[in-house]
TrEMBL record:
InterPro entries: GPCR_Rhodpsn (IPR000276), GPCR_Rhodpsn_7TM (IPR017452), MRGPCRFAMILY (IPR026234). PANTHER family: G-PROTEIN COUPLED RECEPTORS FAMILY 1 PROFILE DOMAIN-CONTAINING PROTEIN-RELATED, MAS-RELATED G-PROTEIN COUPLED RECEPTOR. GO terms for molecular function: G protein-coupled receptor activity. It is found in: Membrane. The keyword Iron-sulfur does not apply. PROSITE patterns: G_PROTEIN_RECEP_F1_2. The keyword Membrane applies. One of its GO terms (cellular component) is plasma membrane. Keywords: G-protein coupled receptor, Membrane, Receptor, Transducer, Transmembrane, Transmembrane helix. This is Proto-oncogene Mas.
């Protein structure tokens, strides 16, 4: 989903008129639904193959997940965000929401810092298994999953000396388009 959000935001900045006039209204919902379905299928495969005794194929399933994450989703996310930041730096005539781009940057940064090590470790497990390193990578991935709401709340309350209002108000501040 982070990859889809990054690509959609990049496309909306690169071709804003196409996005407003010609982009199908249900495109985001359809892409998100397909990604959730893919995630459910892959999680079901991991559960069925790795947990129910079909261990000879477990590494193949985990390798496929690692490949999709590390060689497909991550490069698209990083590339779209690099293009987005380059485009925003060059276009000085437009005013952009600094909070939204800070949220995008921090989310991608923490994903690369905490989410990618698990994929790398799963790939390295094909050659050597180190239990301690794998446990640390799982901990980092868990931290990555829980840090996004914190980023949203902090960005929504940016420039306030103390938190005023609710988490809902903070999230509205982050994602509002001014």
């Amino acid at each position: 989903l982070l990859t889809a959000i990054s690509v959609e935001r990049c496309v909306s900045v690169l071709w804003p008129f196409w996005c407003r006039c010609h982009r199908p209204k249900l495109l985001s919902a359809a892409v998100c639904s397909l990604l959730w379905a893919l995630a459910c299928v892959l999680a079901g495969l991991v559960y069925f193959v790795c947990n129910l005794g079909h261990s000879e194929h477990c590494w193949m399933v985990l390798g496929t997940l690692c490949f999709l994450n590390f060689c497909f989703f991550t490069p698209f996310m990083v590339l779209s965000n690099v293009i987005l930041f380059i485009k925003l730096k060059r276009s000085s005539w437009q005013h952009h929401s600094a909070r939204l781009y800070a949220v995008i940057f921090l989310t991608v940064f923490f994903f690369l810092l905490f989410g990618i090590p698990l994929s790398v470790q799963i790939f390295l497990n094909f050659f050597v298994y180190i239990n301690f390193v794998f446990e640390i990578c799982l901990l980092l991935a868990s931290f990555n999953s829980s840090i996004n709401p914190v980023i949203y709340v902090l960005a929504g309350n940016y420039r306030n000396s103390r938190f005023r209002g609710s988490v809902k108000v903070a999230l509205q501040r982050v994602f509002e388009d001014k």
